[in-house]
Amino acid sequence: MTASRARLSIGLPVFNGEKYIKEAIDSILAQSFSDFELIISDNASTDHTEQICREYVIRDSRIKYYRNLKNMGASYNHNRVFILSSGEYFKWAAYDDVLGKDFLLKCIEFLDKNPSMVLCSSKTGRINEKSEFQDIYEFKVRINSSKPHERFHDFIEMRNHAWLLLFGVIRSGSLRKTRLFGNYIGTDTNLIAELSLLGSMFEIPEVLFFRRYHSQSYTETTGQDYKERLSWWVVSGSPKYIFPYWRICQEYIRSVRHIPMKQSESLNCYLQIVKYLIKEGFILMSIDVALVLVGHSRLHRTLTPFGRQLYKLAIKR
């Protein structure tokens, strides 16, 4: 480990993670690549998370622990760990996930050899509450395409779980060029799409990252209610009416405006947004309006079987 600063910063935002955080931290400390700092930002947990983290701080000088005075929401906390970081590379870590021993080493070795790539991850396995392996997440996204509009197209389409790439190793310089996490539902989907405009990505064809599926996860605890889902990302300031897919589409446009590209490539990216709207975006935006007007249960009763399936995909995204 270097005397000045670590090559890699790992940011671990957490709220009430006492059940799984030990296993997550242990898997980080057991990595074959050791030149890292681990930044933990505790969102005012009310369980034993603080005590557990402070015990780890005493044991390992690479660990830094910060605690918010109150719960600021997931977006703020995810951004905070990156703002506090100083490494050449950055990785977000979740309190309930586990890394294979060589995850960091193989990702950083690849990025060192491929300076044009902005992110490297590995195939992702799914584990349950008992850390038992279940299956592998599969998503087909042209992440290594040399054309920004192709990468962008695949990320803005409904590609379940593609946001998991945000848990890969990312060049800090590239990540600083994005707008990071915003205060809206689906901001993780937007962030990975925006990052894809900056460069190609790579997925190591080996399962070295394990995503835990459990009853206390965001997907399981927030349900179908938009206000409940938004309150996970941002604690205060929730608007009376929430239109997630309208906001997501707006943010796609802002991403293309934000990232410097050739005019021809920017136009190509705008075209991908139009294709997305024609294929599914307008339907999802209509569901936003319908949910505000009639509510979840009444809308579900009036939909066709195809409409119900699309509705289920929409509220899970």
Question: How would you characterize this protein structure?
Answer:
Helix 5 (148-156) packs parallel to helix 11. The protein is built from 13 helices and 9 strands. It is globular and about 55 Å long. Strands 1, 2, 3, 4, 5, 6, 7, 8 and 9 form a 9-stranded mixed sheet that branches. The protein starts with 7 loop residues before the first strand and ends with a helix. The model has no long low-confidence stretch (mean pLDDT 89). Helix content is 45%, strand content 17%. Among the domains are: 1-96, Alpha-Beta Complex (Spore Coat Polysaccharide Biosynthesis Protein SpsA, Chain A), CATH 3.90.550; 218-316, no CATH class.
Weakly predicted, low-confidence segments: none
- Portion in strands: 15-25%
Number of H/I helices: 13
Q: What do the pLDDT scores average to?
A: 89
Radius of gyration: 20 Å
For the largest beta-sheet, the strand count, sense and barrel status come to: 9 strands, mixed
For the record, give the distance between the C-alpha atoms at the N and C termini, rounded to a whole number. 40 Å
Instruction: Label the structural class.
Output: alpha/beta
Order of helices and strands: EHEHEHEEHEEHEHHEHHHHHH
The strand count comes to 9
Helix % is 40-55%
